[in-house]
Every structure is written in C-alpha cells, then in structure tokens.
Write a structure and sequence with these properties.
The chain has five helices and four strands, in the order βαααβαββα. By secondary structure, the protein is mostly helical. A two-stranded antiparallel ribbon has the order 1-2. Strands 3-4 form a two-stranded antiparallel ribbon. α3 crosses α4.
Length: 118
C-alpha cells in the first residue's frame, strides 16, 4: 500500500504538496517532491522491501527520471489541485518504489514471489 500522508515535504523552496491549491506546483518540482516522499519511505526498506535503506534510495534515484518521464505526458504543466497532485503522485510512486526482494531478486507479482521466495 502506498503511503501518501507526508504532504508537508518541501524538496523545493516555496512548494509543498500540502499547499498545492494555494501555491500550484510546476510539474518537474511536483515530481521532485514525490521523489522525496519515495526516499523517505526507504527508511522502512528492510521490512517493506527486504533491502537496505541505501539500496532502496539507489533504486529510487535510478528510476526517478524514467518514472517522471512516463508520467509527464499525462500530467498538467502546473499542478493546481490536491486531487491531481495525489493522482500523479500515486502513479509516480508506483513506478519508482521498489517491490519486495527475495534472494536479491525484485518480485512484482505473487507468482514471482512463489518462485523466488522458497
């Protein structure tokens, strides 16, 4: 399950996911804020993903640009509402966040987990 509560994060001065309606966020800065959310979630990487915090952060950073590019086409240039911020952010987090790892292999489906996690 994705955790979307840390809306007070501010990766860029002046922009906040919590205050998006009062201060709309340009698309790239919006992805930067969600990247910070994903990196903070890496604090729980050992229990959530079975990898270290450093491994999680490395994966998030590695995937960040690709995931932002994938979501960029459907996102407006300026994020003006909380609903849009959450929708775009949810899709970005689904892309950038590591899945569970078994024996060093990332498993994305239940079938992969059954095969790898014996």
């Amino acid at each position: 399950m994705l955790y979307l509560a840390p809306f007070a994060l501010q990766a860029q001065p002046g922009y906040s996911l919590k205050a998006v309606e009062a201060n709309p966020i340009p698309k790239q800065q919006h992805f930067d804020l969600w990247r910070e959310v994903a990196l903070q979630q890496c604090d729980d990487a050992p229990s959530r993903h079975n990898i270290t915090r450093a491994q999680c952060a490395s994966l998030v950073k590695e995937r960040s640009d690709t995931c932002a590019a994938q979501q960029s086409g459907s996102a407006p240039q300026l994020i003006r509402t909380t609903a849009v911020a959450k929708d775009v952010g949810r899709k970005y987090l689904q892309c950038v966040t590591p899945h569970y790892f078994c024996k060093g292999i990332e498993v994305r489906t239940e079938a992969e987990a059954r095969a790898q996690c014996k």
